[in-house]
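The freezer alarm interrupted the setup, so I double-checked each line after restarting. Inputs confirmed:
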Amino acid sequence: MAGSAFGGVFRITTFGESHGVAVGVVAEGCPPLLPLAAEDIQRDLDRRRPGSSRQVTQRRESDKAEILSGVLEGKTTGAPVAILIRNADARPKDYEALRETFRPGHADITYFRKYGIRDWRGGGRASARETAARVAAGAIARAFLSTLGVCVRGCLEAMGDLEVPFRSWEDAAQNDFFAANRGAVVKKLSQKIESLRREGNSCGARVFAVAENVPAGWGEPVFDKLDADIAKAMMSINAVKGVEIGAGFAAVKMSGSENNDEITPDGFATNNAGGILGGISSGQNVTVRVAVKPASSIRIPQKSVTASGEETVVETKGRHDPCVGIRAVPVAEAMLALVLADHALRQRAQCGKFS
Amino acid sequence: MAGSAFGGVFRITTFGESHGVAVGVVAEGCPPLLPLAAEDIQRDLDRRRPGSSRQVTQRRESDKAEILSGVLEGKTTGAPVAILIRNADARPKDYEALRETFRPGHADITYFRKYGIRDWRGGGRASARETAARVAAGAIARAFLSTLGVCVRGCLEAMGDLEVPFRSWEDAAQNDFFAANRGAVVKKLSQKIESLRREGNSCGARVFAVAENVPAGWGEPVFDKLDADIAKAMMSINAVKGVEIGAGFAAVKMSGSENNDEITPDGFATNNAGGILGGISSGQNVTVRVAVKPASSIRIPQKSVTASGEETVVETKGRHDPCVGIRAVPVAEAMLALVLADHALRQRAQCGKFS
Amino acid sequence: MAGSAFGGVFRITTFGESHGVAVGVVAEGCPPLLPLAAEDIQRDLDRRRPGSSRQVTQRRESDKAEILSGVLEGKTTGAPVAILIRNADARPKDYEALRETFRPGHADITYFRKYGIRDWRGGGRASARETAARVAAGAIARAFLSTLGVCVRGCLEAMGDLEVPFRSWEDAAQNDFFAANRGAVVKKLSQKIESLRREGNSCGARVFAVAENVPAGWGEPVFDKLDADIAKAMMSINAVKGVEIGAGFAAVKMSGSENNDEITPDGFATNNAGGILGGISSGQNVTVRVAVKPASSIRIPQKSVTASGEETVVETKGRHDPCVGIRAVPVAEAMLALVLADHALRQRAQCGKFS
Amino acid sequence: MAGSAFGGVFRITTFGESHGVAVGVVAEGCPPLLPLAAEDIQRDLDRRRPGSSRQVTQRRESDKAEILSGVLEGKTTGAPVAILIRNADARPKDYEALRETFRPGHADITYFRKYGIRDWRGGGRASARETAARVAAGAIARAFLSTLGVCVRGCLEAMGDLEVPFRSWEDAAQNDFFAANRGAVVKKLSQKIESLRREGNSCGARVFAVAENVPAGWGEPVFDKLDADIAKAMMSINAVKGVEIGAGFAAVKMSGSENNDEITPDGFATNNAGGILGGISSGQNVTVRVAVKPASSIRIPQKSVTASGEETVVETKGRHDPCVGIRAVPVAEAMLALVLADHALRQRAQCGKFS
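Predicted 3D structure, all chains:
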């Protein structure tokens, strides 16, 4: 069972390599009669796009989404919606040097060990470019969720050791870092990126995502719990190494009397649960935090081996992000939207209504 | 799509409620001709069993596993292996008071909102008792993995703010806390549990699990990455709120040059990746950390509401764990084993061999 | 991917061998709050039961269904419903002679070739006893479908070359053959069975099943079409070798103008389509015909080989049906009900309502 | 759960409408390092192509396959293989008249009832054009199967009441009817098609498909039996109304002693089982027969209703096949290949080898 599909009722299958012909996605199970236009998808793709700002990789991709199927006269028909994004700025030649060499921290070595062959052109399927297909599919999920009043948002909460205090969602929309704070921190983020670019190094990040207005009742115990599927969704994003729901690891040091969210007739008093109890949404905001490791492709020389097992030293050339965690924000939003859209339909399947 | 199944090729389906007739599991896809006896399953169940020590819930369950199918003359036949564990010490009456009341921090309220009905007898399906079925299935997975030389182990790394420095796996086998340290920390753990029991409170925990000797090549990008499926597996365990692979959240503050594990002809120099690159095992140890929240059932009174929405105050009676994180150790091991067994077979399906 | 599960949203997983401890089923995804009692399941099991008449195998099984989970105070809770049927009259010794020999026409040889091991005790998992679990699960599906007004029925349409003209469903309920005709044909059926029993031979059968009152809209093109899933469901029953929907093979010789069912404001004029167009129910009766081959276990000596490949002659002893097609009637009904229940929920998932 | 995916380990997802932008497929789980070129796919597509002969629809489609992903330097990489076939000769205008009218015998009415919207442009997703994607995917499956020595072939066995006696596979490759007989019957087939075209009518067909050299052991009891999955695969093809394995419906009238295939040290004496016992391949040829109903789109006027429920009369214009059963031959081959490729890998997953 190959792993390029995600979801149960609302289910996506992605394909495509970084420097191949195209990336794309087929989304099955979308409810019919949902208004959907290429622009809805383009809007989200543009937020994720490389080259959209100085902060991320300098690859220039138009990331133009073409809807191939499943939409008639502006509405979904219930048939699979296929979206194609051609690779315009593919430059496989740039990667010739990596044909026989494994970058430390990169999937080069494991793809080769697994399949006995590796698409060496820019990381192939392991490239962050693959996330464009996720974002395109996520845009469909969002369009559906918005009909239920559910809103998914994300922001950069930390870049390396630089914390970004939350100020407002409006702020997050006004800078290239998805920093929910339009204050001085934006300048510091810019400086940090510049500094990393000069050094040829990279840094990690912590991303926060939230879904607001999720009705109580979504999530399928005992394995397809809402938080379990969110954890999988997030951990499946390139470079993610940790996921927290609600209080997350902070709950380790809390007592039950502190951690339990008391309930009143007006709702929960706190939200340490991150909106999920027993794997089912409680009606509170669903909150997630994600740890993104520093990009592995750096210009600083590091020890490695060749495909034939000999010692070598790798300095990655090419156009790379000093902090992949920035672009992980729209990707995390997309994955959260995909999980929720799927669970909305699964709840309707068994229990007859969304809430 | 209800969520009581887990895995693709090696797939389990669990059933049963805490104070109903029984809990159990059907495991499909196990390779034939694997030696398997009820004792293999019993051994793991006994480690998880309530009443096995003073540290955990005082419910007395024999947790006797009966193999119903799929085994002939001590060997698996390739047919589904069903395991039944009857509830011997069920006392639904103890929970009558909770029939119309939702415990704060518990799944009582969300099950009711989701299904419109709730098995109020000791948490029903949301009870930690459900994990007995996981452990039983995990024992089959372990039996299979051991034929490949893969070993899965776990320990309690922290209980509340009390850290347990790792000393040895032998130590972990010699105390009821799964503490990999036979030193003074065991006494402190005991004292902490006693103190919580007196207060009627509970505390969180951090669990560490590792799989040794995993070959390179397991994991199915881009969604069923090995780490993604581990994250789901762990987050699906009762009370888990966070999952880390390798360096986890610490990677946020690292630079690429620090975080990248350099490669030498003798292997990787470090293991910040936790044995997984691009969602595929690298041949290093697969390392996971899990945050377990404090048990929600406490004797300290907390505000809540009744099923009809009226204010109330809840003090949970009954026999509960002050720290569910302790018993989460064998459960985390079982879930890790289940993910690995499944991915071993998936790797063999597509690529023809385990490594 | 082992194959003991069936269905998408309403999904069952069966286990158990003919002469092992038990057979059983876990049914996931059943809507909550559905009234369900052990008697509902027992009623259907009793129709299928061996020993219930002289017409079928003389094995005496009480086939007592025990509900292990998922039901509280007479209603489903949304959690998996597990049902256990212990094997009371298992006599593995009767099959010792078949330990090293493959019966012609039986799955003995293929199970052995596939798994390298074979549960020789009465056919193990390949025994018709396995269908008890299907019937038990089908009873849950029926209980759900009846809330939608959908009714599933079946009858024996032919036994060998003896055709049974349809007279009424009431008739079908009044004889052990499920013959929808209480006339002289019942006597002929009895005589044929007696004659086969004397000869030690067996015969084939054709079974008809129909679902009435199915709303338009069920079925998921282009692969999980309603007829495609019905075909799979039927062909998965022991000994089934052919499936027809509506006019079936007769459509080969029809012209389009004959075969097309004209549509009027009052509905379709004919039903050559068998209630399914483009894989989606049309609102007409869903009609299915199934070819059941003669049972392979016969007393007449036939050439075969041993496990080590040597020539031998097999005469099956034991208690066998001269016509397994009789008992296939309730099994075909159960499978049809399972497909419909699943597709009802899948339709609700994507499109929001059952019709 | 929408139904546009098929298979477990070797899994395809199709998309696209008849007169939309394109049709296509994503094939997951293909073993890596398999030689695969666009020409391999084109060869099969050309056999199915409309306009390739006078016998089938006069729509002119180049059916040019573009491989979008999963292949590097002529070899599969293990990543999803996506194939795109743009619709060159789409003429939605031709179908304006059908916007508000349902053709008798066609899926127009059921798609509308299911989704509340219908892609009226040439049948949309319900068009036989969808099968191009199946054939493209089938070509990958065939390429894989050929590495195992497995060969899949098909022929037209009957067109209406005109039977085509089998002569040789070479014959089947030398005429546009896939008739395995180069004799006078080909002329009769031509005359029949011409006659139907003149009348504006259509006829049914029976297709035969066989897989040679299938090892023993493929198929996953008890639901994903090889024959069950073949039945589903075949019944999911447009216009198919019946499926038989081996002796099929003829087995109804056989006795056990006739039907059982005796076994000798050199193999089975006969093949009434169609190469499958207990849902597992026996090592004999796997044989399948499929009933294809006459195409519903005919020029002869028939009664129908409009979307608003009013009486109308329909005479289909446009370019249609008098006998869709002809083109069903390569489609049936493709579906059989897809089932076998999937089960080959599933067998390897659980049991470690293909045979």
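Quick read of the result. Chain A touches chain B through 114 residues (CB under 8 Å).
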